């Protein structure tokens, strides 16, 4: 068995996922850089350092997920942390201005095909990868699962007419609300196994997910996911937070 703790970060070839990989590597983890495109993953892993390894992982492809789980099992023999970071905000070819992304993502406007595609990555993909990696996580001494969510998924915040970002609640937000529900379900199911499952909001971080219009750096965005990945035995499970503290569901 590999003698260092192993962390898998999906969607880690760029943005927040890549920074999470760098931060975990700096804290002594062997990091598996999940990427749909293996060559992009290899480049990202090189930027992380010798502790990183590229892992081909398309969270919407069952064969890719199964192959990734088999490689982790055969090559490393353990998995201590799973960070479900892979996500999409819009499935169209051209992202366009943020205002147009928001408009097209509204529940009354978005196509059902696009909504299904968002759920395949942001919700079903998280469940599929988690299920595939659970046999390894169950064997870890301090297993942690972190789902990278968003305050955009908070029903409480988006039910408040005073929330200035309420108008942005749309298809992406709906998928993150569902991810929060998945987090609670997994935390409940896995608590007896000692697996802590929490949701992290990185904040409005400048990545290609929002055409780099975010106001936070990837270093700031990675803080809360990394903190939750490193929780000790006294840490919580089934929580939803950013680096300022708990968020309302």
What does the model show?
- The protein has 249 residues and is an alpha/beta fold.
- It has a single domain (6-246), classed as Rossmann fold (3-Layer(aba) Sandwich).
- It has eight helices and eight strands; from the N terminus they run E-H-E-H-E-H-E-H-H-E-H-H-E-H-E-E.
- It has an eight-stranded mixed sheet, sandwiched between helices.
- Strand 6, helix 8 (218-229) and strand 7 form a beta-alpha-beta unit.
- The helix tally amounts to 8
Report the top-level CATH class: Alpha Beta
How many domains, in number, for the residues?
1
Q: Label the CATH architecture.
A: 3-Layer(aba) Sandwich
* Poorly predicted parts: none
Distance between the termini: 39 Å
Query: Order of strands in the sheet with the most strands?
Result: 3-2-1-4-5-6-7-8
Helix content: 40-55%
Strand content: 5-15%
Q: What secondary-structure arrangement, pairings included, does this model have?
A:
Blueprint: E1 6-9, H1 15-26, E2 30-35, H2 38-48, E3 52-56, H3 62-76, E4 81-84, H4 98-104, H5 112-139, E5 144-148, H6 155-158, H7 171-190, E6 196-200, H8 218-229, E7 240-242, E8 245-246
Parallel strand pairs: 1-2, 1-4, 2-3, 4-5, 5-6, 6-7
Antiparallel strand pairs: 7-8
């Amino acid at each position: 068995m590999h003698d260092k703790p192993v962390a898998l970060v999906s969607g880690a070839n760029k943005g927040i996922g890549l920074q999470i990989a760098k931060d975990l590597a700096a804290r002594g983890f062997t990091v598996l850089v999940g990427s749909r495109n293996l060559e992009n993953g290899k480049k990202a892993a090189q930027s992380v350092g010798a502790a990183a390894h590229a892992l081909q992982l398309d969270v919407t492809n069952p064969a890719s997920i199964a192959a990734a789980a088999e490689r982790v099992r055969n090559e490393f023999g353990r998995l201590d942390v799973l960070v479900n970071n892979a996500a999409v905000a819009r499935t169209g070819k051209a992202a366009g201005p943020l205002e147009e992304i928001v408009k097209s993502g509204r529940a009354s406007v978005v196509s059902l095909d696009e909504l299904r595609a968002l759920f395949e990555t942001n919700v079903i993909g998280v469940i599929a990868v988690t299920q595939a990696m659970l046999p390894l996580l169950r064997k870890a001494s301090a297993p942690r699962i972190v789902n990278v969510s968003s305050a955009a998924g908070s029903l409480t915040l988006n039910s408040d007419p005073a929330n200035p970002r309420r108008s942005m609640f749309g298809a992406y937000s709906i998928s993150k609300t569902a991810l929060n529900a998945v987090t609670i379900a997994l935390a409940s199911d896995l608590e007896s196994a000692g697996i802590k499952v929490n949701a992290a909001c990185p904040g409005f971080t400048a990545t290609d997910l929002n055409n780099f219009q975010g106001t936070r750096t990837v270093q700031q965005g990675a803080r809360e996911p990394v903190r939750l990945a490193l929780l000790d035995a006294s840490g919580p499970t089934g929580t939803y937070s950013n680096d300022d503290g708990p968020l309302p569901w």
